C-alpha cells in the first residue's frame, strides 16, 4: 500500500468513528430501523465523499475536524442512495461491499424506510455543523441548499431516473454523460464544494473546485464501469458483470474500451491542471492517480 | 361550508400556489420524475401541515407569507411519505385523494425516486426561508434540524417502521400510541413548532405549542381511524375499510368505538385548554372542532 492509500485509510477511520457517533444507537427504539441504518452506513467503503469534504476544507485553511458533521451527512446520503438502488424495484442487487444488501437482511419495507431515514437524518447532521466554532450559519444553510440540490431530481436522483428509464435501451453518448455526471458526479461535486464553502473559499475558488469535481466524478464512473468488466470480485466485494446482466449502458459498452481509456486519460490531465493552481493541492493531485488506478 | 372551512380553503389555495412555484417544472429534464413529483404534490388535500406552519407564525406576530418556503417543504415531506407508504412493499394502496397512487401511474421505480426527490427537495426549499427579510439564519437551521428529527427514524419513519412491523399482530395500547404519535403526530408538531420558531417565539411558548401539537396529532389519527370505518368513500377519495383489509391496528380496533370517542373528546378539551392561553388563538381553537367533526 502506498503513502496515499495509507492517508486515505487514516481519514476513512476518522469518518467511521464520526459516523458511529452521529448515527442513532442500535438500542434506540425502534431497534430494527436503527440496526438497518447502521448496517449499511457502517459497512465500510472508501469514504471518498466525506474525505473530499474534509480535504477540501483543509485546502482552504479550515481544520478538517470542523466539517465532520457535513462529511458524515453526505456519506449518509450516499448510503441511502445505495440502499434504494439495490432494492428489487431498482437494480435488485444482492451484494454490496462484500455483504448482503440491506433488503436481503432486513426485508424490502425496512430497507426502504432505512434509506428514507438516512436521507432525512443527513440534513439533521449537516445542520449540526453550525454549532462548531468558526463556522457561519449562512455557510451551513448554503451547504444544505446545495447538497439537497445536487442530491435531488436535477442531480443524483435525476441521474438514477434516466439510468432506470434507459436500462436495456440504446442511448447516445450525451445521455450516458448525463446519467454519470448526475448519478455519481453531483454528490462528489457537492462534497468538494461543501468543504470549501464552510472554509469560506472565494466564489472563484469554488468554481475551480467545482470543475475539478466534475472531472473526478467522470473518472470515478469510467473506472467503475471498467472494474465491472475487468475487476477482481474479491477486491470489489460484489460480483462483476452486473452492468451487462442488468443491461446497463456504460462507457465501455457505448464507446468501446480504447476510447473509454483515452477519455479517462484526458480527464485525469484536465483535473490535475485545474487543481494544480492551488498551493497544497498534493492530496487532490494524488487523488486523480489513485482513482485512475484503483482496483476496488 | 362554515367560516372556518372557507378560511382553510383560502389558505390551502395560497399553499397550492406556493407549492407550484417551489416545485420543479414538468418540462425540466428528466421530465418523468418532475411529472411524478408534481402529480402527487399537487393532488389537492387539505394542506393542514403547511397551514399550521403559517398560522403558528401568525400567532406569534409574523405574517404568514414569510414562512411559505418552510410550509411547502413540510408538505413535500408529507407527500413523499404518502408515496412511499402506498408502494407495494408497504401498504400497496391504489388510490389516494381520489386519484390513482403515484406508482400506479408512473411505476414503482419512478414513484420510489419521486418520493426520494421530494424529501430531498424539501430541505432545499426550507433553506430558502433564510433569504426572506426578517428571518434569522439560526432559526432556519434549527427548523431544519427539528423537521429532520421529527420526520426521521425517531419520528415519522419510526412510526411507519413499527406500523409495518406490527401489522396483523396483536399490540398493546402503548404501541398503538407510539405508532400514531410518530407516524402522524411528529410532523404536525414540527409544523406548529417551525412556524413559531421562525416567528422567534419564546422557549416557553414553543413548549406549549408542542404539547398542543401532540394532542392535535392524536385527534387527527383517531378521526382518521373512525373515517376508515364510517366515512364516505366519495368524500374521502379512497376506499374505506383499508385498515381492516390491511390488518392495521387502529384506535377503534384496539379500544373499541366508545372508548375511542371518549379519548377523542378528552384530547379536544386538553388541546383547547393549552392553546386558549394565547391571545388571537381563534384559528387553533376552531381547528380542534374542525378536526373532530371532519368528514374527509
Brief summary of the model shown:
2 copies of one chain form a homodimer. By secondary structure, the first copy, chain A, is mainly α.
How would you describe the overall organization of this protein?
2 copies of one chain form a homodimer. By secondary structure, chain A is mainly alpha-helical. Chain A has one domain: Farnesyl Diphosphate Synthase. Helices cover 71% and strands 1% of the residues of chain A. In chain A, strand 1 and strand 2 form a beta hairpin. In chain A, helix 2 crosses helix 6. The two termini of chain A are 13 Å apart. The model of chain A has no long low-confidence stretch (mean pLDDT 95).
Topology:
The structure is a homodimer of 296-residue chains.
Chain A: H1 3-22, H2 31-41, H3 48-59, H4 68-86, E1 95-96, E2 99-100, H5 102-106, H6 108-127, H7 137-151, H8 156-166, H9 173-198, H10 203-230, H11 233-236, H12 242-245, H13 251-255, H14 257-275, H15 282-293
Helix pairs in contact in A: 1-4, 2-6, 3-4, 3-9, 4-6, 4-9, 7-9, 8-9, 9-10, 10-14, 10-15, 14-15
Keywords summarizing the entry:
homodimer, 296 residues, mainly alpha, Farnesyl Diphosphate Synthase, 15 helices, 71% helix
CATH first level of chain A: Mainly Alpha
Strand proportion of chain A, as a percent range, falls in under 5%
Helical content of chain A stands at over 70%
Total count of domains of chain A:
1
The appropriate CATH architecture of chain A is Orthogonal Bundle
CATH topology (level 3) name of chain A: Farnesyl Diphosphate Synthase
Give the helices and strands of chain A as they follow along the chain: HHHHEEHHHHHHHHHHH
Described by the principal axes of the CA atoms, the overall outline of chain A is globular
Could you give me the name of the CATH homologous superfamily of chain A?
A: Farnesyl Diphosphate Synthase
- Strand order, largest beta sheet of chain A: 1-2
**Integer average pLDDT of chain A:** 95
Compute the number of helices of chain A.
15
